[in-house]
Write a structure and sequence with these properties.
The complex is a heterodimer of chains A (747) and B (127). Chain A is 51% helix and 18% strand. Chain A is an alpha+beta fold. Chain B is of the alpha/beta class and 127 residues long. The longest helix of chain B has 20 residues. The chains are: A alpha+beta (747), B alpha/beta (127).
């Protein structure tokens, strides 16, 4: 891949086998015009080049003197996925080739043995033939199993041990013993002169096959992230100098005017400036219905323009787009481990040396207490123990399931921040739902104006309320302002504005003191409400929020605002309750309104009139009762409560979400996302448990059987080839079980 | 017979010492004058190849951020992810690509890094 260089770029050099190559490579690079300095690190086989030169020129120069070079510069996600697929395919092909080479020797030998052929080296002819086969086997070990032996050796000198160590020791022991049988038969008793070349070749072949199948299965576990990355387009049509140009996505600048035609994907985030269309956001939010978009509406990269041609202004590009953030978050979460995997981690750290010790102990037990030929039994038991043990199955159990589970959740518009959130979400016993914007649409509108002072008209009341509320950011305030503006009322400037959280607002307008808020605010200011309390109660009972307007400490009106309940809130809350989750509503609204809304959606417990700073206390209250608490809010005003909850859910509408503020972010506004998130978490945890159980049982049962524990009772001794097959397929089983999660559909 | 038994026991002791008791010396991190958040940071390159991290043991001064450049040359899918559990950092390592991991200024202690399956292991000693 050639790219124009930045100030420094790095190339990996292949084929540089001696220190003298360094000078040759540095010289050829330093002679290229534009290269300021080229320095090679021989240990890393990497060269750093400073200057302004095309990477292709540098690579060509290196190739011209007989070496290969590859760029290590950053690639885009799309390029990385393509390169990963190519690299995986190459690795798969080489493993399959290595497998066939090994099985090409192993299968005929094993068939010969099963057909009654002598696997012993009794005669000089037999020894000659077996010597030839032993050398052939050594060649197979080199060509098909070099990676095991090299990995084992490098790990060993590094004081660590891994799967390669076990395979290398197991196959190496079998081959060495067989060579002793062939070359120095006299050192062994006659009964023990059995060769195991077939075991060595078969084990290498089967393990390569297992690895190859695992590469394929692993590719499937990352399909969700591939799909997300695939949503990013490569080109965009921008309007520059009154001309529409198709340019690479990397060249789109902030504030560029971008054209998106029907059927095309939105290339970067932006705001529509011309045209109307319907945008399909299902790939990001899981919301199946296209969303109508017009002038002033935000659109995000990766979504699909369904109907009209639009022009929009780019507001976020490159790594700042919502899709780029989502991809990063999903990638990070997929690579994180929930605590359930910790025990497996601890075991993995000690596993290989412990298996090596068990293999030696097993061999010694057979050697001291076994039947004749003791040496052969000792070698077979040690080899089989080394080969059957599979640390990879244990290590893979958790990450593979997390990878698929997090990806599956992302497909339904549920972004899980880390593995721990996934684990805790599966155990939630109580869910607190914020009312405004979570259960309701969060788009309140004025429904009633009750005048208490006949000196004021409805329009005057709305003008005064709108003027004072235009200073506030509260959603109810916005409803009042929108209502006033919709009636073409002219709002006035106020002074001495003061917002009292949980109560309301006050300000001065034309030397009059305006107070606008709830009953508590009126009582605090000793404003007489008389029988208007009953009128307000009636409004509240019908799920409306009444607010009092007082001028110079005299009540002049009640304005009621209603926030419609989301169409699917009732069904989604039922799904949560069906999972035996205690659903509680939390709101700063008055008790009567809160109770009315709760009743409509089927919630029995309500925390009403809760001040913003008290929200986290309610979370703590439920936690003190022994509940594992999920808290769902808009992710901005509820930050402390979301942080304190065992799992914080931020609910977004469309893609306008604060994805940094919660453990789990629901990309669409529907509460069904909550039930989906919990269902996916439960399914993933169940999958992890199956994997861990399977891997534990496999090793706990397999190692003693390999050591020969069944022999005294049933005369059974495991064949090393069978152990090799079991080991090769144990990891594959874990990955395949994790892949089953891809088919999961939340109920 | 005694010789074989003693050899076996000797091997077990050797395994315990070699893998668990032996404390390898850390490779000093090469200091490079690069600024991260206005603080001078250290930088080191770790190559993932043939089943191990090279170097696998790093030494870094305390209270300094550290950049670790990973280059994976090992095709094995086990090597494709590196994790720093103490910092809640994990990264995918594409083949033959430089991946820079920025660690914050650290207090004295030993921090581990490993692949998802803990088969590739490394330690970062902060002194």
């Amino acid at each position: 891949m050639s790219k124009l260089t930045e100030s420094t770029q790095e190339l990996i050099i292949e084929g540089a086998g001696c220190a003298s190559c360094v000078g040759k490579i540095e010289t050829v690079l330093n002679n290229i015009s534009g290269v300021e300095n080229a320095q090679m690190n021989f240990a890393l086989r990497m060269v750093s080049i400073t200057g302004d030169v095309n990477a292709k020129v540098l690579i060509n120069a290196i190739e011209s003197i007989g070496y290969n070079a590859k760029s290590v510069s950053e690639s885009s996600d799309n390029e990385l996925i393509d390169e990963k697929e190519i690299a995986d395919q190459k690795y798969y092909n080489s493993l399959i080739k290595q497998m066939w080479m090994a099985l090409g020797l192993g299968i005929p030998l094993i068939v010969y043995g099963l057909a009654g052929g002598a696997m012993t080296a009794d005669t000089s002819l037999a020894r000659t033939v077996w010597l030839f086969i032993g050398v052939l086997c050594a060649a197979i070990m080199y060509f098909s199993g070099k990676h095991f032996y090299l990995g084992a050796w490098k790990s060993l000198v590094n004081h660590s041990a891994n799967m390669d160590t076990l395979i290398a020791l197991g196959t190496g022991t079998a081959w060495l013993y067989s060579m002793v049988v062939v070359l120095f038969p006299m050192v062994l008793p006659e009964m023990a002169r059995h060769v195991y070349f077939e075991a060595t070749a078969m084990i290498i072949g089967l393990i390569n096959l297992g690895l190859a199948l695992e590469v394929k299965a692993r590719g499937k576990t990352s399909e969700a992230i591939k799909r997300l990355i695939g949503l990013q387009v490569k080109t965009a049509r921008v309007v520059r100098d009154n001309k529409e140009l198709d340019i690479a996505i990397e060249q789109v600048l902030l504030d560029d005017i971008v054209r998106v035609r029907p059927g095309e994907k939105v290339p970067v985030d932006g705001v529509v400036i011309q045209g109307n269309t319907a945008i399909d956001e299902s790939m990001l939010t899981g919301e199946p219905m296209p969303i109508e978009k017009g002038k002033g509406d935000e659109i995000v990269a990766g979504t699909l323009n369904k109907s009209g041609s639009i022009l929009f202004q780019a507001t976020r590009i490159g790594k700042d787009t919502a899709i780029a953030h989502i991809i990063n978050m999903v990638k990070k979460a997929q690579n994180s481990k929930p605590s359930i995997g910790r025990l497996a981690d601890v075991i993995s750290a000690y596993f290989v040396p412990v298996v090596m010790i068990i293999a030696i102990l097993s061999a010694l037990v057979w050697f001291n207490f076994g039947p004749d030929p003791v040496i052969a039994y000792a070698v077979v038991s040690a080899t089989t123990v080394l080969i059957i043990a599979c640390p990879c199955a244990l290590g893979l159990a958790t990450p593979m399931s997390v990878m698929v589970g997090v990806g599956k959740a992302a497909e339904s518009g549920v972004l899980i921040r880390h593995g721990e959130a996934l684990q805790t979400a599966s155990k939630i016993t109580a869910m607190i739902l914020d009312k405004t914007g979570t259960i309701t649409e969060g788009k309140p509108s004025v429904t009633d104006i009750i005048i208490a002072d006949r000196n004021y008209s409805e329009q005057q009341i709305l003008t005064l309320a709108g003027s004072i509320e235009s200073n506030s950011e509260h959603p109810l305030a916005q409803a009042i302002v929108d209502s006033a503006l919709a009636k073409n009322l002219v709002l006035e400037n106020t002074s001495e504005f003061n917002a009292i959280a949980g109560y309301g607002v006050q300000a001065k307008l034309n030397n009059q003191q305006l107070i606008f808020g709830n009953q508590k605010l009126m009582l605090k200011n000793a404003i007489a409400l008389n029988d208007f309390v009953a009128r307000a109660q009636q409004l509240a009972d019908s799920a409306k929020t009444p607010m009092y307007l007082a001028i110079d400490n005299k009540l002049v009106a009640i304005i009621a605002v209603s926030d419609p309940i989301k169409a699917d809130s009732v069904a989604a809350i039922k799904r949560l309750q069906a999972k035996d989750i205690r659903v509680v509503m939390l709101t700063g609204d008055n008790r009567a309104t809160a109770n009315a809304v709760a009743q409509q959606v089927g919630i029995k417990e309500v925390f009403a009139e809760v001040l913003p700073e008290e929200k986290s206390n309610k979370v703590a209250e439920l936690q003190a009762q022994g509940e594992i608490v999920g808290m769902t809010g808009d992710g901005i005003n509820d930050a402390p409560a979301l942080a304190l909850a065992n799992v914080g859910f931020a609910i977004g509408t469309g893609t306008d979400v604060a994805i940094e503020s919660a453990d789990i972010t629901l990309m669409r506004g529907s509460l069904h996302g909550l039930a989906d998130a919990i269902a996916v978490s439960k399914a993933t945890l169940a999958n992890i448990k199956q994997n861990l159980f399977g891997a534990f049982i496999y090793n706990v049962a397999g190692i003693p059987v390999a050591a020969g524990i069944l022999y005294p009772f049933f005369g059974l001794m495991l064949n090393p080839v069978v152990a090799g097959a079991a080991m090769a397929f144990s990891s594959l089983t874990v990955v395949s079980n994790a892949n089953r999660l891809r088919l999961f559909k939340p109920q | 017979m005694l010789l074989i038994n003693l050899t076996g026991l000797g091997l077990i002791i050797l395994i315990i010492w070699w893998f668990w008791l032996y404390k390898p010396t850390a490779t000093a991190v090469a200091v490079k004058s690069e600024k991260i958040d206005n603080k001078c940071s250290n930088e080191v390159t770790v190559v993932v190849d043939s089943g191990i991290y090279q170097p696998a043991h790093l030494l870094s001064p305390e209270n300094k951020p550290l950049n670790i450049n990973f280059i994976r040359k090992d095709s094995s899918s086990c090597a494709a992810t590196v994790m720093f559990p103490d910092f809640d950092i994990s990264a995918e390592l594409p083949l033959n690509k430089l991946v820079k991991i920025q660690l914050p200024a650290m207090q004295q202690g030993e921090y581990v890094f490993h692949c998802q399956m803990k088969m590739y292991n490394g330690t970062l000693l902060v002194k």
